[in-house]
Structure formats: structure tokens, C-alpha cells
Amino acid sequence: MSDLDLRPTPVVCGGRDDVSAQPVRELLSPRRVPLGESTFVRRLLPTLGRRMVGAWCFVDNYGPDHIADEPGMQVPPHPHIGLQTVSWLHAGEVLHRDSLGSLQTVRPKELGLMTAGRAISHSEESPRTHTPTLHGAQLWVALPDGDRHVAPAFEHHADLPVVTGGNGLAATVILGRFDGAASPGATYTPIVGADLALSDGADVRLPVEPDFEYAALTMSGITEVDGVRLEPGSMLYLGCGRRDLRLRADGDSGLVLLGGEPFEEKLVMWWNFVARTGEEIAEARRAWTSGDRFGTVHGYDGAPLPAPPLPATPLKPRGRTR
User: Where is the signal peptide (predicted)?
Assistant: First the structure.
């Protein structure tokens, strides 16, 4: 997934200064952002006042969009450094291509996990023949300093662990560990991502880690998270300090729980790059513009995305400013 803003704002994030050690209930307001030719997304991270949740540093939620007569998602080749991308669908398909030669269709409840590391480029599109509805989330995970220059890689996991019980909950483990089950996806920090399906009338308490900070992204239906009633497409930041989290559902509903240890390092995020200094960002932009370092995505019918101009002011890491 790319940030297609032609004038992207540099985002400074990381550090523990703005992480509440106590539970909070902070509703995050999304921004409506165009994605490709016919798709709009709700951008929930980064947003004003909240930059990260654990190592999760970017959250786009889209759909349900009716694309029977539309091209659907069409994101041309673009570069990444210093992060992982997570493709997560509730409906539809996304065809992933990258500069490693990967070609993979990702379907609902399957994990498409790309580790950019030192440099990769990729494209994402709805296949030419696609189902009529597109609904999902695109997520980024910041890599810690010791791993941010790893070799790029792509993983596809169609069979993820599911935690079930007799209480109306089915939890698919996207990344990390949840309630004793572990995702096969590669991780580099203590982190969790879980897709939670709740049946009508469910009233459950999830086990959570008190040292993790969490947020809940609602995908469908009406869910009450720790007493806060949430509509689809909203995200509630929960802070740290809980050992369990209460969920209630009025009708069948779904949400994604994101969490992890607060990301201690300070970093700079601009366009599709996560780095530590403005100089690294400028060098990555130069390399993409000149055709160096990021390789070539073969098979996409269209030109790569041009890099937007850098801002006039220097890019500096400043932590979790609010």
C-alpha cells in the first residue's frame, strides 16, 4: 500500500513519552484519502495526536466498496524502506507483485506480509476478474533499528491459527501471539494483530498484555469495546495497563485488535519510507527517482509512482508529539 498524497506531511513518531501507562479510551478520527483510480480509504494512523500503536505505524481501512463495474484497487509500483506491510481482507482480492518477482493473490483472512527491509518496490491491484466487493485494511509495522536493513522478503500465509471458544468469539491471529496461538508471519518486535469475529450477543473478555498498548479497528457491525460503542471504520486507542478487554456485540461484528510494546526508538516517516533521519529519506527518494536500489516490478500495466517533492523544512525525528 502506498501513501498517494502528492504533498505528504512528514510524520515524527516513536519514543515512550506519550504512552499512557494507564488504560485510556481515545477515539481516533479518520481522514478520507484517495487510493488509486477509484478507491478511497479511511486513514486512522498516523493521525493528529496519535502516531503509533506499538510498532504499528500506518492504518488504512477501506470498504465495503462495490467494484463490480470498477477497476477497484490500482496502486502502481512504489518503494518502501524500514517497514513491513500487512494486507488484510474481509472481502475481495488483492494481487501483489514486487521487485523480488513475487506474484500472489491475497484473499480474505489470508496474510500478505512484505518485509521491505533495506529496499523493495511493489504494486497492488484488484485482479482483472474480481469479486464485486472490496473490504479490508492495509497496515504498516515499523522495523527496529537492528533489523531495518534486513533483506527484503514476501510471505503469504493462507492458513492462520484461529482461537475459538463457546462465547461467540473467533480470533484469527494475523501477527504475533494471541491467547497462546502464534502467527507464522515474521515479526521483529513484541507485537500482536488479531482479527476478531463476534456473533450476535457475544460478551467476552479478551486476555491482553498489560505492557502492550492497544487499539481496536472496527471492520463491520456495532461493537462495544471497553464500554465505548463503535461504528464500522472507527478506531479506539486503549493505551496500556489492562490484563483483559471487554467486548460486546449487537449483531454479528468484526474488528482488528492491534497491539505491542510501545516503540521506543524515534523515527521519521515520509511518503512510503520509515527511517531515522531526514538524510536517509532524501537518499531513498533519490534512489527511487534515479532507478537505483529498489529493483523493478514486472507485469503491472502502468508506470511506477513518481516520488513527491521533499518538504522545504528539514525532516527530524521528535517522538510521539501530540
Answer: none
Mind listing the pLDDT tens digit for each residue in 198-210?
999 999 999 999 9
Residue 299 lies in a domain: no
Residue 202 domain-assigned (yes or no) = yes
Domain with residue 44: its CATH number is 2.60.120.10
Give the residue numbers spanning the domain of 186.
11-260
| pLDDT per residue as tens digits for the range 34-82 | 776 667 899 999 987 789 999 999 999 999 999 999 999 999 999 999 9
pTM of structure: 0.92
- Cβ count near 73 (within 10 Å): 29
The answer to whether the beta carbons of residues 112 and 136 sit under 8 Å apart is no
